[in-house]
Write the structure tokens for this entry.
Amino acid sequence: MVSPPRLLVLAAAAVTFVAPRLGAQSDEETLARYRLTEASLVKFTQAARNFIAAAKADSTTREDQDEDDSANSIAALAALYDRHPALRQAITSAGMTTREFTTFEMSMFQAGMAAWSVEQQHGKFDKVPAGIPQENIRFYQRHQADLQRIQADLQRIGEELRALEGKAPAEPEDPLSRP
């Protein structure tokens, strides 16, 4: 089984490096259509808290699995969460499906990267890639502190769990070093 720190690293990698480059048109279309909302933020926040608690408490989610199990799409990441009953329950008990949780997560990271780009362009949206909804960027800008806090909490739990397992902290991947 994939350990929670690995789940978090896989999720971050999928969102940050893989999702924007996916050839899977369905993920791009899903992210282009998905809108971050106040209601989904409330559910996602609770699901993330539940996820963190479940990852800390459930030792079965700490078992290692082969490297072939990388999640590189919304469906694959949702399936990864579904294979861990405690994590699936953590997400669904907050009123989200694992697919919705993953879609929100990817949309949030995508909007965050685009919000940074807009900030660098002094508020101009003209450099935002097509397919990233401006509504999601504005939502991210309004809720940036909360969303960054959730992201930091998820990252922190991953590091804590890696420390419990006696493993070195995961090093962030440099997207420029990829072939």
Notes: Residues 4-168 form one domain.
